[in-house]
Design brief:
The complex is a heterodimer of chains A (about 525) and B (about 140).
Chain A (H helix, E strand, L loop, with lengths): L7 E2 L6 E2 L11 H15 L4 H29 L2 E4 L10 E4 L1 H24 L2 H5 L2 H17 L3 H20 L4 H32 L4 H10 L6 H15 L8 H5 L5 H26 L1 H6 L1 H21 L3 H22 L2 H32 L10 H4 L1 H15 L5 H16 L2 H27 L20 H23 L2 H15 L2 H8 L4
Antiparallel strand pairs in A: 1-2, 3-4
Helix pairs in contact in A: 1-2, 1-5, 2-3, 3-5, 3-11, 3-15, 3-20, 3-21, 5-6, 6-7, 6-11, 7-9, 8-22, 9-11, 11-14, 11-15, 13-14, 13-19, 14-15, 14-18, 14-19, 15-17, 15-18, 15-20, 15-21, 17-19, 17-20, 18-19, 18-20
Chain B lengths: L3 H23 L8 H19 L1 H8 L3 H14 L3 H5 L8 E2 L2 E2 L2 E2 L2 E2 H29 L1
Antiparallel strand pairs in B: 1-4, 2-3
Helix pairs in contact in B: 1-2, 2-3, 2-6, 4-6
């Protein structure tokens, strides 16, 4: 690690000598562990009996590694490891700061919970087609994207997670799945190409792909060229991946087709990787350029929020409704990006953590509803309150959380973002966040009332006996109870005791806005 | 393609190509070659054998499913980075040992292990695609 201890630079300037401790390898562990397990599961593909358990172990190790890394980053500040002992601007660096480690940790917990749920639902056929290797490889991509300190490497991790997500979304090969996959794949490939082009321009202009080095060059004031154009291209690419208006239509068109678990981890993780990339590139690397088009970002944010939630109100399929709510949440985070103050970025990070937890939980809950009623259509569900009051209560907490009401984590994310807009005096943005929150609560409580409160499917008489729901098998019930329970508890606990999260997020926000620690960890304070 | 000449010749050609692919793999560090190109050669060897004698003999001959071979490659390529922990150097740093067998000095490195991993990933992936396509042809 370059930041600690005296470092001896070779005369040729190619090799760096510094003794690394075992703890330093936590920087790469969140990528190495899922790749190893992905390869292992690929070899054991024909033995479905062990797959689920191995995957749970793998995800648990991943979560532990991410937790260790987060602790370390909180202790020592940003840390960097450059692969193969090359000197930073030339070698590929992994640079981890608080924002990256926080999101990596949250996503690993989501993946761990997801693997518990998957263990009871993945069919033998899905496992033969490589569901678990894809899941693991996707987590390698997600962690890599959160941890890397190199722009082209970020592109590579995006590819890794994208390719494996194609594999996961098409699993089952039904007609509507292929339809969803096409929309998902095409739009994402366009965004990826744009990302690659922007990376090429960046390299042409700055002669480097190392993020710390780019930051130094962009802020030196010596750079001549279309830096703003590059920043806008990056913004466009990542905003497409995050499903911002007007490029949001691919998300609800594809997320309701795959297995419930797949929609859940996609909704929880993938769009947030896009948001993280926006923070890292648009906010940290091209800060001055972002200021120039901040107003456009604000408009996009407001439109994304409102378009998302209006879409949610118009739908009848539960998963499609959630898809639109994901979009609305992305808009809320973009509002923070438009403002760009420490408060706003703190809000984004808090909201991102909240959104990962609650969106995954909602899709998993939709899976439970699907099992109970054999349908995800609001007109054909109902009566679950009588069948399982505890599930209804858990869903109620999730509903409060996604609408941004206390006592849940959603409240704090929105609260901080609203505070940031008020500090700036951007009243119309404040209004957009609050209105989208109100409409979200209408949309989600519509789901809650129809699914849980109504005695049965549409047309069931009032006072009729509770609608008989499909009995769940024991194994599935336990897995769903654990996975949903953990997520509901998490959003509730973060709502009641938000201090740790908000404090961490505030430090992460400062690290993104004033990345001197990040730069020093890469160049060892020598430049 | 089912001429008797081709069918007689294909096993020898396949053996030769696989042998040559290993040679290409091993000379790769300092000379043109390496895991990727070696893997492609081996995969085309299996493809030729498949065209000549059918897919089933190929699957029997390589014993493991091609995709499992690719998984194995990915596994050892990643493992090749782990000795860095013991040497206290950054991940994936090339570490070398020079054991002497008789009077011959062997240069072994983690880079070689990584390259062998790449070899298996390429062999596995391309063979898997080729065999799947050839199976379609046979149907």
């Amino acid at each position: 690690m370059a930041s600690k201890g005296p470092e001896i630079t070779d005369v040729t300037g190619i090799l760096v000598n510094a003794d690394l401790q075992l703890a330093d390898f936590l920087i790469v562990a969140p990528v190495v562990i899922p790749i190893l397990f992905s390869a292992l599961l690929l070899m054991l593909r024909t033995r479905p009996a062990t797959q689920g358990r191995i995957a749970i172990i793998g995800m648990a190790l991943l979560a532990l590694a991410c937790f260790g890394l987060l602790q370390r980053v909180l202790d020592t500040g940003p840390v960097t490891m450059t692969m193969g002992r090359w000197v930073p601007p030339f070698g590929i660096s992994f640079s981890v700061d608080i924002a990256g480690a926080l999101l990596a940790f949250t996503s690993s917990v989501i993946a761990f919970v997801g693997s518990i749920y998957a263990n009871s639902t993945a069919s033998k056929l899905e496992m033969r087609y490589g569901f678990y290797p894809f899941f693991m490889a996707m987590m390698a991509g997600v962690s890599g994207a959160f941890l890397t300190g190199d722009l082209f490497n970020l592109y590579v991790w995006f590819e890794v997670l994208l390719i494996s997500s194609f594999g996961m979304i098409v699993l089952g090969s039904e007609k509507n799945q292929l339809d969803g996959t096409m929309k998902y794949a095409f739009l994402n490939l366009v965004a990826t190409t744009m990302f690659l082009m922007a990376t090429g321009y960046t390299y042409g202009l700055t002669g480097t792909l190392n993020m710390a080095d780019i930051w130094t060059k962009v802020n030196s004031g010596l750079l001549e060229g279309p830096v703003t154009t590059i920043a806008v291209l990056f913004f466009l690419a990542f905003a497409m991946k995050a499903a911002a208006f007007p490029m949001n239509f691919w998300l609800p068109a594809s997320y309701h087709t795959p297995k419930f678990l797949v929609s859940a981890v996609f909704a929880g993780l993938l769009t947030k990787v896009g948001v993280y990339a926006l923070l890292r590139v648009t906010l940290m690397l091209f800060a001055d350029q972002r200021d120039l088009f901040a107003e456009i970002i604000a408009w996009i944010a407001a439109l994304t929020m409102i378009a998302g939630v209006l879409g949610a109100l118009a739908q009848n399929d539960i998963r499609r409704i959630f898809g639109y709510l994901v979009i609305s949440g992305i808009g809320t985070m973009l509002a923070g990006l438009a403002i760009g103050s420490v408060t706003a970025i703190t809000g984004i990070l808090v909201y991102a953590v909240h959104s990962m937890i609650v969106m995954t939980a909602l899709y998993l809950a939709a899976g439970v509803v699907g099992r109970m009623m054999n349908s995800n259509d609001l007109r054909q569900v109902g009566g679950i309150y009588a069948a399982s009051p505890m599930f209804a209560a858990g869903f109620l907490i999730l509903a409060l959380s996604v609408s941004g009401l206390p006592p849940t984590s959603g409240f704090w994310g929105k609260f901080i973002l609203v505070k940031a807009t008020v500090e700036l005096g951007a009243w119309w943005l404040t209004a957009a966040i609050l209105i989208s929150g109100l409409l979200t609560s209408i949309a989600i409580f519509r789901v809650w009332i129809f699914t849980f409160w109504r005695g049965g499917p549409s047309g069931t008489r009032d006072g009729a006996e509770a609608w008989k729901v499909e009995p769940l098998n024991q194994e599935y019930q336990l897995a769903a109870f654990i996975s949903l329970g953990v997520l509901v508890l998490a959003t509730f606990a973060l709502g009641v005791f938000p201090e740790v999260l908000i404090g961490t997020a505030a430090d992460g926000a400062k690290g993104l806005l004033y990345p001197t620690g990040y730069i020093e960890s890469v160049f060892g304070g020598t430049q | 393609m089912n001429t008797i000449i081709f069918r007689t010749f294909a096993p020898y050609l396949t053996a030769l190509m696989v042998l040559f692919s290993v040679f290409i793999l091993l000379r790769g560090h300092n000379d043109p070659g390496g895991g990727f190109i070696g893997g492609l050669l081996a995969a085309s060897a299996f493809a030729i054998y498949g065209i000549a004698n059918g897919v089933t003999p190929v699957r029997r001959a390589i014993y493991f499913h091609p995709i499992s071979l690719a998984g194995f490659g990915l596994f050892i390529a990643t493992l090749a980075g782990l000795p860095s922990i013991l040497a206290q150097v950054p991940f994936l740093t090339g570490l070398w040992v020079y054991p002497k067998i008789g009077s011959v000095e062997l240069a072994l490195s983690t880079t070689l292990i990584f390259d062998i991993g790449v070899y298996f990933v390429v062999v596995g992936t391309i063979t898997s695609i080729a065999l799947a396509l050839e199976e379609r042809l046979e149907d």
